[in-house]
Structures are given as C-alpha cells and as structure tokens.
Amino acid sequence: MSFSESVVSQAWNRSHGKCGCPHLAHDHSRNPCIRPVSWEARGREVNGGWQARSTSGKYLDTPSDCEILCWACYSATPHQAQ
Ligand SMILES: [Zn+2]
Ligand SMILES: [Zn+2]
Q1: 3-state secondary structure of 23
Q2: Which sequence spans correspond to the domains of the chain?
Q3: Distance, CA 15 to ligand 2 centroid (Å)?
Q4: Which protein residues have their CB within 5 A of the ion that is ligand 2?
C-alpha cells in the first residue's frame, strides 16, 4: 500500500521542498524539521532523501494525510503496521 502519485505530489507542493515533520521526539525537538529535500531523491538514503508517510497509517487518498519526511525523520518514525 502507498499513496497515489497525485497525493504525493500535492503533499510535496505543500511542503515547499522541506521536511514537514512535526514529531516532537526527534532531534529537531519542538521546532518543525525544515531540512531541505529534493524530489529526485525520493525513497533514497542520500542527502536530500525523503519518504512519504501516512499520518493515520491508512493511506487515505488525501494530501493532508501524507507527510513529507526527510530520511532522518522517516527513519526515526515508527513504521505503521500495514
Ligand atoms: Zn526532517
Ligand atoms: Zn522529525
């Protein structure tokens, strides 16, 4: 299961090329993570790499359920049971 491409691209446009991670337990602590990410590096463990993650864990077809997370944040976030 994953998001449709249109949902990911809408969430991506909303993120303005930055990690949108709001998780308080990460190194960026209370501040939203704003690490720059690049579209071409999707799904890769490289500088600027990132992944789309479902906030609800259900892969709803809505951009608001889709988080754009830099690789560090994605790795630090518990993966949802699928
Ligand atoms: Zn991040
Ligand atoms: Zn984070």
Answers
A1: coil
A2: 5-76
A3: 14
A4: 21, 23, 26, 33, 73
Tokens matching residue 9: 């691209």
Confidence (pLDDT) at 45: 95
H-run or E-run covering 54: strand 50-54
Please tell me the predicted confidence (pLDDT) of residue 52: 95
pLDDT tens-place string over residues 7-52 = 999 999 999 999 999 888 898 977 889 999 999 999 999 999 999 9
Determine the distance separating the centroid of ligand 2 and the alpha carbon of 34, expressed in angstroms.
Answer: 9
Tell me which residue has tokens 């939203």: 32
Query: Nearest bound ligand to CA 48?
Result: 1
Cα(58)–Cα(25) distance, integer angstroms: 22
